Model the fold of this input.
Amino acid sequence: MTSTQHQGAAAFVVNVDFEQGLFGFPECRRFVLSTAPRPGFYWLQSLEYPTLAFLLADPFLYFEDYAVDVNPADSAALAATDASQIAVLVTVTLPADASGVRTVNLQGPLLFNLTRGLGRQIIVSNPAFRVREPLPEPSAAAA
Amino acid sequence: MRITNSVLTRTALSTIRDGLSGLDRAQRQLASGSRLERPSDDPAAAADVLVADRRLAALGQYQRNISAAKSRLAAQESVLNQLDGILSRARELATAQMGDTANATTRLIAAEEVDRLAEAVAQLANTRFNSGYLFGGQHADLPPYPLDADRVPQGELPIEIAEGQQVNTVIPADRLFLAPGTVDSLQRLASGLRANDEAAIADAARDVNSAFNTVQLALGETGARVQQLELAHSNAEALVLGLKEHRADLSEIDLEDAVTQLLARQNALQAAMMATTRLFNTTLTDYLR
Done:
């Protein structure tokens, strides 16, 4: 865990096209990715349906062993020739009430080539990375 | 390529962060090749609320479809695992009975066991699910085995899990039990063993093997479909609604009307979503503060 990665980071807003949409949302293709007030968190807001948004988190801040294998078709779709061009974020599911557990989906990460404005959701085959992985307390990561 | 927690591969986010803070908007747009847009720049955003409402009502139905598809696929996966075990055992028996240690007596004993395996497979082909037959395809009301040429159990019962996105839920008996001759190959294996006919045993064993491979493929296919559904479900759960809703139009309508409308909207959404996703609430704003 590196504590300084996100400190003092500038806010950004980027348009991202998901050519294939997201799983279950194939018609949501154009999004705006922006930094959320909390470091390490991002908003992905639909442009087709502006009232729809996803909260995303940087998985590497919480899961040191997390790794994503990107197949050639996916890296080509992202116009990426090198791993350093791809940013990985995962969806966060917030609990319905304050006492619930926040989870992240490590099995279906969202990949971004932010300089090209391209995004893609992929399936990670490693069964160790689960769909509903409890997210450690943000204080532990943000501190 | 592999993306891990190493500093080298973690640069994508910081690059864009640093890069964007140093560029002006025009340059940024040029670099990305597209005009930078934000929902707040869009004068049509308010009208989209209505579209989103319809989308969300549909989403409730899609979530129910996903649940239905998942339970069907789970039932199928369980049958396939049993089939996998049965065919593995049949392969073992066939291999053992083709060797030098086999004789008419051992083959007779093995034939008895293969008979029972064939019966078990026939029963699996007629697995019940809800009020019909799991592998019945378009003829789910009738048992797919034994095959009736007038009603071949085909069709994969696609279920719509999102607008324009369908997932097949079932591998019909035609593809799993009949065309590859799963039951048939076991029955021929049993008669070959009974007849003490090594050539017939070898012949049937090849077909058992190909049925086994079909089951392996079907297991992989089922697993991939389940995964796809899991992710669609998880995305719907993660969806945050109404974050910026009524941004523009609220100022234009009477406050009382607005409150009434918001309440009606909230109730309709809750019904539609069946509590699978959360509505915008204070928890969310607190969380991000």
Notes: The radius of gyration of chain B is 29 Å. Chain B touches chain A through 68 residues (CB under 8 Å).
